[in-house]
Design goal:
Number of domains: 3
Strand content: 35-45%
Number of strands: 24
CATH topology of the largest domain: Nuclear Transport Factor 2, Chain: A
Radius of gyration: 36 Å
CATH architecture of the largest domain: Roll
Helix content: 10-25%
Distance between the termini: 118 Å
CATH class of the largest domain: Alpha Beta
Structural class: alpha+beta
C-alpha cells in the first residue's frame, strides 16, 4: 500500500515540476519579447527541387545553346567550337550511316548543344533535329555514343471545310489549311473523284490529325474522315484498319481504293476530251481523239493508274515518247507526248499503281506540253473518264461490327460540320 502511495506522489511531483518549468520558460520568453512560436517552428520541410533533365542529361550545371545549320557549315566546325577533339570528330564520321550520317546535315535545320559552364565550354551532347519529331543525339564522355529518338508528340484533331469557288487549293488555304492537306485529300479520293473535273459548288469537310511537339506545330498526320460533294453526289471516306494497314472506306464498307486511279497526274486541267471527231490542233483535220488530254507544265510527273507491266516504251510517231502498260487481260493504258521516261521504265518492267513512269512534255505532234492519256478495254479504245473499275477488298464480315461503330461516329461528326453555301443570284 505504501509503495503505491509513493508512486502516486512521484507522478504528481513530476507533473508539478513540468508545469513550473513550462511556466518559467513562458515568463522568460515574454520578458525578453521572444514569441511563443518561430517561423522555423511553423515551416514545413521542403524537399530539394528535382534536377533539370534534357534529353536524359542533368543540365543544372550545364549550358544549353540552340543553333541552326548555316550554309556551307559542317559538323566539324560546330563541334570544334565546343572543345571536341579532331579525333572524336573523325570517329563520328565512321559511325554507321543508318545511325548518324554527317553528310545528311541540312542547311537551316536546328540543333542543340549541351556544354559545360566553364570557359572551355566542352560539349557533352550534340542533338540534331532533322524534323520537329525525330532527333539524333551524339554524347561525348569517356566514349562516343549515338542515339536516335523521337520527341513526345501530341495529336490534335483539326477540321477544314468549304465550298469551292475557284479551286480546291484556294478553298483549303483560305480556310487555314495547307498545301499538304490539299494533296492528302486528293489522294484519299484519287480512285473515285476526277479532280480535274471539279466544279464551282463542289464542297468538302475533312477531319485530320495535326502534330505538336512542346506546343509547336510539327506537321500534319492522316485524314481520319472526310466528306466530298462532287457533281451533287456525296462521297464519304472513313479511315479503318482491317489488319493490313489503314485504308479508306465508304458508308457501306466498300474500299475507296480501286484497280485504277481516276487520273494519271495531279492537279492540272483537261484540255481535250475523248471524241470520235476532233479537229487535230497540228494537222488541222477532223479525226477521232481516243484519249483525254491533260494540260500540265513540262516535267509534271505522270503516274501509272494501276499495277501492270510495261509493254511499250519508245518514240511512236505523232504520239512522241509513249509508254503503254498492260494491267491484266482486259485493260491497257497509254501515256503519250512525254518529255522523258521514269527511272528504269522499259519493256517488261513491272510497275505499281501511282509509280512515276514518265514526265509531261510535247514530243510528237503537240502544240504545247500536255499528256494524252488512253485506255483500252479488250483492245478497244474507251473513254478514260467513264471507266468504273472494281474496288479493292471491302470491309470483311469479321470487321463489319467494329467498322460500323467507327463509321457511324465519324459520319455523325462530319454531318455536324456546317458549310456556308454561296448565295444564289437573284
Amino acid at each position: 500500500m505504501k509503495k503505491k502511495i509513493f508512486i502516486v506522489v512521484g507522478i504528481v511531483a513530476a507533473l508539478v515540476l513540468t508545469y513550473v518549468i513550462i511556466a518559467s520558460v513562458s515568463q522568460w520568453k515574454a520578458k525578453h519579447n521572444i514569441p511563443e512560436t518561430t517561423e522555423l517552428d511553423s515551416m514545413e520541410f521542403q524537399p530539394p527541387p528535382p534536377p533539370k533533365v534534357l534529353y536524359g542529361i542533368v543540365i543544372d550545371s550545364m549550358v544549353v545553346e540552340e543553333g541552326v545549320i548555316k550554309a556551307n557549315e559542317n559538323l566539324s566546325e560546330i563541334l570544334s567550337r565546343f572543345n571536341i577533339s579532331p579525333q572524336t570528330i573523325a570517329e563520328i564520321s565512321l559511325l554507321p550511316k543508318d545511325s548518324f550520317n554527317v553528310r545528311r546535315l541540312q542547311t537551316k535545320k536546328p540543333y542543340t548543344i549541351i556544354h559545360e559552364s566553364d570557359s572551355q565550354k566542352t560539349a557533352r551532347a550534340f542533338i540534331y533535329h532533322p524534323n520537329p519529331i525525330e532527333f539524333v543525339m551524339l554524347q561525348f564522355g569517356d566514349s562516343l555514343s549515338v542515339h536516335n529518338g523521337r520527341n513526345k508528340v501530341d495529336t490534335i484533331l483539326e477540321v477544314s471545310s468549304g465550298v469551292i469557288e475557284t479551286s480546291l487549293y484556294n478553298t483549303i488555304l483560305q480556310d487555314g489549311g495547307t498545301p499538304l492537306l490539299v494533296n492528302e485529300l486528293a489522294d484519299v479520293y484519287a480512285w473515285v473523284i476526277d479532280f480535274f473535273g471539279l466544279q464551282k459548288g463542289d464542297a468538302f469537310k475533312v477531319i485530320y490529325e495535326r502534330y505538336e511537339v512542346n506546343g509547336q506545330d510539327a506537321g500534319m498526320g492522316r485524314i481520319i474522315g472526310s466528306w466530298f460533294r462532287h457533281q451533287g453526289k456525296p462521297f464519304y471516306a472513313v479511315q479503318y484498319d482491317q489488319g493490313e494497314g489503314k485504308e479508306y472506306f465508304d458508308e457501306v464498307g466498300n474500299s475507296l481504293r480501286k484497280a485504277f486511279l481516276k487520273a494519271p497526274l495531279k492537279f492540272s486541267r483537261i484540255s481535250s476530251r475523248f471524241s470520235h471527231a476532233r479537229l487535230h490542233p497540228v494537222l488541222k483535220i477532223t479525226r477521232p481523239h481516243t484519249g483525254v488530254d491533260y494540260a500540265a507544265p513540262t516535267g509534271t510527273p505522270v503516274m501509272s493508274v494501276g499495277d501492270g507491266t510495261v509493254v511499250f516504251a519508245a518514240y511512236s510517231g505523232g504520239g512522241g515518247n509513249t509508254v503503254k502498260v498492260k494491267h491484266n487481260g482486259t485493260y491497257t493504258t497509254g501515256y503519250l507526248h512525254l518529255s522523258k521516261y521514269g527511272n528504269g521504265i522499259k519493256n517488261g518492267v513491272r510497275v505499281s499503281q501511282g509509280q512515276i513512269i514518265g514526265y509531261v512534255g510535247k514530243s510528237g505532234l503537240a502544240t504545247g506540253p500536255h499528256l494524252d492519256f488512253r485506255f483500252w478495254k479488250n483492245g478497244q479504245a474507251v473513254d478514260p473518264l467513264k471507266i468504273d473499275p472494281p474496288s479493292a477488298n471491302p470491309i470483311s464480315k469479321a470487321h463489319e461490327a467494329p467498322y460500323a461503330l467507327i463509321k457511324n461516329e465519324m459520319i455523325s461528326r462530319l454531318d455536324e460540320i456546317k458549310l456556308t453555301e454561296p448565295e444564289s443570284p437573284m
